[in-house]
Structure formats: C-alpha cells, structure tokens
Amino acid sequence: MPYSFVALLGIGLGFAADVAPTALWTASLVSVALSALLRPTTRRLGVVVLIFALSVAAGSTGREPDLSRLDLEGPVVLLGTVDGHPRGLPGEHWLWLDVRRVEQRGRVVRGSFSVLVGLPDGEPRSGIEFPTWGESVRIKGYLRNSSSVGNRLTLTSGHWRLNLPSWRFWKRTTPPLIWHRIATRLRGSVERRTSSRDSGSLGSMLRYSLLVGHPDRLPAALRSRLRATGLGHLLAVSGLHVGLLAGWLWIAGIRFERRLRWLVVIAGVLMYLLIVGPRPSALRASGMIFVSATALLCRRPPQALNAAALWATCLMLWDPQALADLGFRLSVAATLGILMLGPSLVDSFLGLSQRCGLKGRPARLVCQGLAVSVAAQLATLPFSTPTTSLVHPVAPVLNLLAIPWLTVFLGLSFLSLATPWTDPIVEPCLDLLAVPIQALARLPSSVWTTLPSSWTAWDCMFATGALLAVLLRPTWSARLLLPLLLLFAEGGAPGTAPVSATVRFSRLDVGQGDALLLRDGVRSVLVDGGGWPSGDIAARILLPSLAERGIRRLDAVVMTHPDTDHCRGLLDLSYYIEVEEVWSSAGWHDECVLELLTRPGPAWRSVWRGDQGRFDRWNLEVLWPPPGVREGEPNDRSLILRASAGRSRILLAADAGSETEHALVTLEGDELQAKILGVGHHGSKTSSSQAFLEAVTPSLATIGVGGRNPYGHPHPAVVRRLEKVGARIHRTDWLGSLDLKLDPRPVEESHLE
After folding, report:
1. Which domain holds residue 613?
2. C-alpha count within 13 angstroms, C-beta hemisphere, residue 640
3. Burial of 2 (0-12, 13-18, 19+ CB in 10 A)
4. Whole-Å CA distances, 95 to 130, 134, 263, 602
C-alpha cells in the first residue's frame, strides 16, 4: 500500500506540474543505479524513488496537449478511439473520443485528450456502421470548447467538443476488439429490453437509468433535486451499484459451493462493467472486487485498503487524465474515507447511542450506516464543494434512507433484466418504489438540504478536520470547535465578502442571456437567470456566483418573459435554493413558465404596469406591460422594470423592441430617465432606439451577451447610439460580470466599485 500511495502522489504531481518527462526518466535510471550500490537494507528507498519518478513521468505525459498552434476557426481532423458506449436520447446521440492526434493543413499536434462528439441525426448512411466502443476513427469538423464566464469566481472553459455535421466525415480506421464487440452487443440487448418495457412511468425510467447509468430520460426536475439533496450519485453508475450487484449475486448463489459462488460474482460484475462502459468509479469497484475475490479464493485475507490504492494507481497509470475526472476523485476519496474513517466513526456513534439509552442490533445498524455515509461525505467534501458550491447538511441522513431503497430497487431491476417473465410482478413494485423519489422532487428547497457555499478545498479540509475532532473526540475541548465551525459556515469562507449593508446591483455573466441581481443587506432579488437548452446553468454559474456573494435564499425572482436565456436559469435555480416569490405577468403557457410557477414553496405574483415591491431600500416598479395584455410578440410583452434606491435609478429593458420603447417614452416622458440601463434584447438592432436612449440618458449601459454569439450582439448601430448619448458600455463577453455599490442617496454622490 505505501508504494501505491507514492505512485498516486507522483502521478498527481506530474499531472499538475509542467515537468519534462525526459528528465524524470533520467532520474529513474539514476535511482536504479544508486539502489544497486546501496546496502540491501536501504534499497527500499531506491525503489520508492524509482516508483515516484516513473509515476511523475506518467502523469506528465498524460497532460492535455497545447492546441494554441491550431486555427480553431477552421476545420480539424481528429484521430482517436471511441471511449465507451454512445449515449443520448434517440436522434441526439453523443460519445467520448479519446483523441491521440490532431491535424490541420499540414500541422500535427500529438497528445491525449477527450472530445465530446455530437453525432448527426438519424442512422448512418449505407456502408457506415454506427459507432461502437473501442473502434479507432478519423473524423473532421470544428473543434470548440465552452466559453469561460467572467464572474468573480472564475469558471474555466468546459470540455472540448465537436458536432459531426454529417456521417460522411466519419471514417472507421480500425475495428473494435472482440471484447468491445461483446460489450456493444450486451449494451444493445439491455437497451432493447428496457426500452420495449418502458411504460413511460417513473419506475421504468429509473430502472433504465440505474441499469445503464443513463439519467437523460429522467425529468430534469428530478435530476436537479437529487443533486441538490446530495443524492445525485444514485443516478450515476458508481462503486455502490457494482457493490450492490455483487451482493445480490452472492445471495443468489447461496446454494453453490464457495469458489463457484465467487466465480458467479466475478462473471456478473464483469458483464455489468461491459454494459455500462469504462467509468472510473465502476472500474475501481470492479477491480477491488476482483482482487478481494482472488485473495479469498487463494485463502488469503482480503485487504480492502490495499486493493483500493492498487486499483487507483493502476487506473491512473493507464490513463493519467483520470486524475482530472471528478467522478474518479469522488470515488477514490469516498472509498478511502469509508475504509479509514468508518470504523472510528462507528465506535463514536455507538458510544453516543449508548449514552442516549439506545442499544441493540437496530441501533448498531443505524450507527454503522450513518458512519459510512458521514465518512464518505467528509472525505469527498474538499472535491465536491469547490466544484458544486454546495454543502448538504442532512445528506448523511438522506443517504441512510436512500441506500436501502437503492438496494431493493436495483435488485428488482436486475431480476427483471435476467427474468423477463417476472415483469408483471416487478413493474408495479418499481412504480411503488419510485413514489418516494417523486415526492423528493416536489419538496421545496431549503438550506437544510442545500446550503450554497463558496468554500475552497482548503476551507473544506479545515471544516472536515473540525468535524472529525468533534465526532471522534467528543470532549468538551473538541466541542468548542462546533460553534466556531458554525460561525465559519455562516460567515462564509475566508476571503469571501460578507453580506454587505450597502445597496448593490450586479449583472452576472451567464453568456448569451440576462441575470441581474439587486441586493440590500440580506435581501436580494434576481431578475432573469440566463439559461441553456440543455445542461444545468444554475449548478455551473448561478449557484457559485450567489454563494460567493453570501446569498443563500432569494426574496424574489422576476421572470421577464419565457425565452430560454431568461427563464431556464430561474427554473434550475429553484431546485437548489429557497425562493420566496416569483414575479411574472399572466398569460404565458410555455413549459418553463408552467414548471417555475408550479414549484412548491415560492408564491406567484402576477404583475402589470403600476405594480411595485419593496425590498428594504430597493423599490421595484413594473413599467410594462399594461394590465391585461396577454397577446402579442413575447418580447414586446416582456416585463420592463425600474429599480430605485433613493435617487439611484436602474432601468431593466428585458427584450423589449422599438415599438414597446416608443410606448414607454409616451407613457413615462422625463420619468424614464435612469443612470444605469440594462440594454434591451442583448443589444439587438431592433431595440435601443435613438428616441428611447435620449429619454433614458443613461451614463452606464450594461449588456448581457455571449462570446462569439451567432446573432452578432451587440449590433454596431446600437453601440454607436449608446456612445452618442454619452453612455459607457459594459458588455459581459468582454468584461465579465458587473458589480456596482450604490448609496441610496442622489446618484451624483454614489460611487462605483
């Protein structure tokens, strides 16, 4: 085990640091030569140095290649291997490609990195087989990655992706190996069986998702709520799923001889691994089972900690980029946490339960389950919280209830897969078991289940150490850490700005979309929330941005109109944090609006021109649309708001067009003046007319616009008109988020931060 940890440390250092592999190979040879000259008792040091140097070299060679020499505005040719089974909904398939070589007009870049490839709609043309795991291919297209967003908590660009425009740009160069073909047939058989029995109920969708690790068919609300409560791992094929399968196979083979029983378990786990594909957590769990089974078959006691370290090392030596995979980090950390912290936590919880008068087998089972859940959460806290900006206070208790549920649900799912004739009995049971999950999705958001946090990895390590001191050493001196920890959690991480008593206005960078935040002390209102056609913008952008500002609940959210880039982010956010009120005009029938207005918890307030709301010193006034307007172009029915704090005025124009602007000028006259303007429709040429801008006379104009957006926003004519009225222009694609600190006194005395 020590050698494995030395290798893990070396791989991590090589992956994180820019170290020349040639120098490391030289160091390895030198260490071998020196170890030969050392005395036998000190040769172990030479072995450790050798393992460390080789591991650093392996990690360094696994770094992503430098693509700066390529012209990413032009097409490139990728040569690589399909890594895993294609996934996605019918007509929207995608896969991961392990790229080894990139070519463009004579330039060649070698290296190893992953690209998400979107496949064309429909079946491949004649002569082209549908992509399968393990085949080597040559494809052509435009390489892209998600643009980074410029909020104060920097969110880096996402993974590389390429949307294949046509099947004629896909060419197989090497067919898959035989075990890849077996895996493809097994996966296809499972998908056909589960799809043919898909009744459209939540139980059947959960069965499919849990069997193949494909949660895309589940409602987005359910996926978000499970992530928000710390139960998102239930939908991802992980070591837990592999372990439960091994347990059910062990029970099923109870009549077999011991060695045959272990062979059944190994065969079943191997088959399941072929079905779900090469996922780091599944590989780690399967490897541990294989090592433990081999030890037992050889009449040797299994060492779980050794097996975990050995397989983590093997996976990282095989693919050093696994270190950058969050699933791999969480899987390894959770396993090591359970193995290293679990026994001590069990003893501590048992002692506490006995002092409370709770004894017997039920109390012991509860303490063991809770200890496993707490150990896993504490060990993964430094990885999960900086990535998700969330802490889940009651997740250990929820997992204590969820693991037995998953055990039964997976057992019935495996049974229905192996014995189709049991479906009339199994399917009603699955639908019944899905009821608690459906109820969980309908629960209102709360800080008890989802606590936004801007803790860094170091902050999480401090919190983990303090909690372990309290849990493992329940002395009075250790208990003094608990109020300090609560104060730390309430005040935010070091370096995080506390909730300010000043009036603030922020435009969050959500790419192509609007998200405007009004704050006064602990009270806050979010006007629109951006949005993506797919993906969770709340988890990626909104939650980190709000957590960094110390916001854990919203007094109100305002949905100006139901376009995806305005509404979807608010809907996603409602699954994570508490929202007291939703403002919207009536008459919308879009899916996003209906889901947002039916969320449990927030009260819906239908607003029209003349309606107002007070949030401490912020006064929010609706200027448009007039009462009763329910028809017309959606953009022209957008809610237009005036936010005032003292004499500080901000006009938020949503996506209003020039006709609406003309109507506002007629209705408001000189009252339309505002020092800050949220430019309408992202700077489209159909908005921000000259007459409207002259009526507003803004000194600052802020535009929510995405980098390289296909609409050409903001339009040059709009920019010229804004400059003509003397407005400074802030655009999120160039300058990122905007944060203004305003005094609720005359604007002339306010200052910008």
Report:
1. 503-745
2. 27
3. exposed
4. 11, 12, 32, 38
SS3 186: helix
Specify the pLDDT at position 752: 39
**In DSSP terms, which residues pair with 136 in a beta bridge?**
81, 174
Residue with tokens 């609720």: 744
Integer-rounded Cα radius of gyration of the chain: 29
Same domain, 516 and 372: no
Specify whether 197 is located in the same domain as 55: no
CA angle 651, 654, 657 (to 5 degrees): 105
Residue 640's pLDDT is 95
Is residue 396, in this structure, part of any structural domain at all? no
DSSP 634: G
Query: Which of 36, 61, 86 marks a domain boundary?
Result: 61
pLDDT (tens digit, 9 = 90+) per residue, 190-218?
888 877 666 678 888 888 888 887 787 88
Q: Residue 563 CB: number of other CB atoms within 10 A?
A: 21
* Same domain membership, residue 674 and residue 528: yes
Spatial separation of the C-alpha atoms in residues 388 and 383, rounded to whole Å: 9
* Integer Cα distance of 654 and 668 in angstroms: 17
User: Do residues 551 and 700 share a domain?
Assistant: yes
pTM of the predicted model, to two decimals?
Answer: 0.85
**Ranges under pLDDT 50 in the chain:** 492-498, 746-753
């303490």: which residue's tokens?
367
Residue 4 is predicted with a pLDDT of 63
Q: List, in order, residues 6 or more apart from 206 with CB less than 8 Å away.
A: 218, 409, 430, 434, 437
Residues 6+ apart with CB under 8 A from 87: 93, 94, 95, 214, 216
Number of domains, the chain: 5
CATH number of the domain where residue 709 is located? 3.60.15.10
Dihedral in degrees, nearest 10, Cα atoms 392, 394, 396, 401: -120
Query: What pLDDT, on a 0 to 100 scale, did the predictor assign at position 750?
Result: 38
Residues 517 and 642 in one domain: yes
Domain end position, chosen among 444, 472, 496:
496
- Are 669 and 528 contained in the same domain? yes
Residues 179 and 275: their CA atoms lie apart, in Å, by 11
CA 559 to chain centre: 24
